[in-house]
Design brief:
- This protein is α+β, with helices and mostly antiparallel strands and 185 residues long.
- The chain is built from six helices and seven strands.
- The protein has helices spanning 8-28, 30-33, 42-52, 58-66, 90-106, 151-164, and strands spanning 85-87, 117-123, 128-133, 139-141, 145-148, 171-176, 179-184.
- A five-stranded antiparallel sheet has the order 1-2-3-4-5. The chain has a two-stranded antiparallel ribbon with strand order 6-7.
- β6 and β7 (179-184) form a beta hairpin.
- The longest helix is centred in the N-terminal third of the chain and has 21 residues, at 8-28.
- It is globular, with a radius of gyration of 16 Å.
- The termini are far apart.
Length: 185
């Protein structure tokens, strides 16, 4: 198990987007802001990578080092695919990956999954995951349709949508009683 360094430019770029998201959430959706996880640990990420046999892209690792998932039933999710999506912690990523790989072995005709995908977002209502493809870094939702070219692109698109109030893939940010929701535009 080796803790790989993160490209400083990638870490800086991811942190810049997270600062935008944090600022917006704190001012507009304080209940959602409070669900952001504490910083993750590089060693925990390295252990998960070793156990999974995949390298997390630098932008995902940088994000986990800033916020290791989100807490609670209404935790913050970088997704806009459905209501109730929450970011996974490093351990939850590993556990979800294991469960998805096991499901694929027992039901090869079922939902398409391969071991190189890294689930980072869980959609409770649909029971599906959004994932980063470790081979190229693209973000996929549901099965394998590409949604964003990279995890950083997703973080930036979410920050833009929050600050500008603009739709992102047909959903617009809205706040109800201090909680962020993504509503149909």
């Amino acid at each position: 198990m080796t803790v790989r360094p993160i490209d400083p430019r990638v870490r800086q770029a991811v942190n810049r987007q997270w600062r935008r998201i944090e600022r917006w959430l704190k001012a507009n959706a304080p209940r959602t802001y409070r669900t952001l996880g504490a910083p993750g640990r590089a060693r925990t990420i390295a252990i998960a990578e070793a156990q999974m046999g995949v390298d997390f892209p630098d932008d995902l690792r940088a994000s986990l080092l800033r916020h290791n998932g989100s807490r609670g039933a209404y935790g913050f999710g970088l997704g806009f695919w459905s209501e109730g999506a929450t970011n996974l912690s490093t351990r939850e990523i590993r556990d979800a990956w294991r469960a998805l790989c096991a499901r694929q072995r027992t039901d090869p005709a079922g939902e398409h999954w391969n071991g190189r995908l890294i689930p980072f977002l869980y959609q409770r209502e649909e029971g599906t995951f959004a994932a980063v493809d470790s081979a190229g870094g693209a973000v996929v939702g549901g099965a394998t349709e590409p949604r964003m070219p990279s995890y950083h692109a997703l973080v930036r698109a979410v920050a833009d949508a929050l600050e500008q109030g603009t739709p992102l893939e047909g959903r617009r940010p809205a706040v109800t009683r201090g909680l962020l929701r993504w509503e149909q535009a």
